[in-house]
Design a protein that fits this description.
Elements: E1 2-5, E2 12-15, H1 25-38, E3 40-43, H2 50-58, E4 72-73, E5 76-83, E6 86-87, E7 90-91, E8 112-121, E9 124-125, E10 128-129, E11 133-137, H3 138-143, H4 147-153, E12 157-160, H5 162-170, H6 182-187, E13 191-194, E14 196-198, E15 205-207, E16 214-217, H7 222-236, E17 242-245, E18 252-256, E19 260-264, E20 275-282
Length: 290
């Protein structure tokens, strides 16, 4: 494998790696270290089946089955399809357009380590790809906090709620998402995590909060919590922390959910087709279940 670091706050490209052939333990360990250091890795020019992508993703930890159970291949329930395409009147996947900034699985007791996506069809306009995936660096966000804010967050916890994000997406124009069922709500009740996390790969502190799922700083009253979260959500998106990945067809993109937040840019129309396969990897190798 060959690593080519990017020039922005996050991101690197991996060359000379054929994921259809699988990876060995040494390669897996190296990719994990690079994920911790660079946050986002792209692996271009891959020819890979869903089963091969699942096998690759499974090297990094337990694979999540999304609580909403939408846009799934029954043979591979861990895979979610992100798409705006429709066939025979049925959507081929779940649209992620307009989702706003978030960190996947912060709403779960077992948080996420990595997302692994394969871009099969990418919309283009005037020779440029649409639907970029944006990221912000939570190592840098913590380091950039004023000392008094960082001290105030020490020892604090934040409640995260899956339904906050789901209801926001339901309100988006053209959304076909149904409300979560009582069973789904029971499966993913609100959970709390430390506001400041020691990143298990880098050993450094990161800000673990995001606009998509973070609801309340538990140790503060509601007004104080709302004020501080509003500040943190704005602080997280400072330009110097940011990176935008421009999709190419047949690229695999993977990122570290513990050290980044992300957002899919909704700049493409319904007729500009997008089709991406996704796996989510829980952080079980770093935080084993009790």
């Amino acid at each position: 494998m060959k690593l080519i670091p990017g020039s922005q706050a996050l991101g690197a490209k991996i060359l000379d790696l054929d994921l259809s052939q699988g990876i060995d333990t040494a390669q897996c360990d190296q990719l994990i270290q690079w994920l911790g250091e660079y946050g986002v890795l792209s692996i271009p020019q891959q020819e890979i089946t869903p089963k091969q992508l699942k096998a690759f993703s499974g090297n990094f930890g337990e694979l999540e089955i999304n609580v909403a159970k939408v846009a799934q291949d029954p043979a591979i329930p861990e895979m979610m399809t992100l798409s705006n395409m429709v066939e025979n009147g049925q959507p081929l996947g779940l649209s992620d357009a307009g989702q706003d900034w978030h960190t996947d699985m912060s709403y779960s007791k077992q948080i996420a380590f990595a997302n692994i996506l394969y871009g099969i069809k990418i919309p283009m306009r005037d020779g440029q790809p649409l639907g970029n995936t944006e990221f912000s660096n939570m190592h840098a966000a913590y380091d950039g906090l004023p000392k008094d804010i960082a001290q105030e967050l020490e020892g604090k916890t934040i409640t995260h709620d899956f339904n906050k994000f789901w209801e926001k997406m339901r309100r988006e124009k053209g959304s076909s998402r149904p409300p979560l069922t009582p069973e789904q709500l029971r499966a993913k009740p609100p959970v709390s995590h430390p506001a400041i996390m020691i990143h298990p790969i880098t050993g450094k502190k990161v800000l673990y909060a995001n606009p998509g799922y973070s609801m309340r700083i538990n140790e503060l009253n509601q007004a104080a919590s709302d004020e501080l979260l509003e500040y943190l959500f704005a602080h997280q998106l400072r330009p110097e922390f940011r990176y935008a990945f421009k999709w190419e067809e047949k690229s695999v993109l993977m990122w570290d959910n513990m050290g980044t937040i992300h957002n899919a840019v909704a700049d493409y129309a319904p007729h500009e087709h997008r089709f991406i396969q996704r796996f989510q990897v829980a952080a079980s190798r770093f935080f084993p279940a009790n």
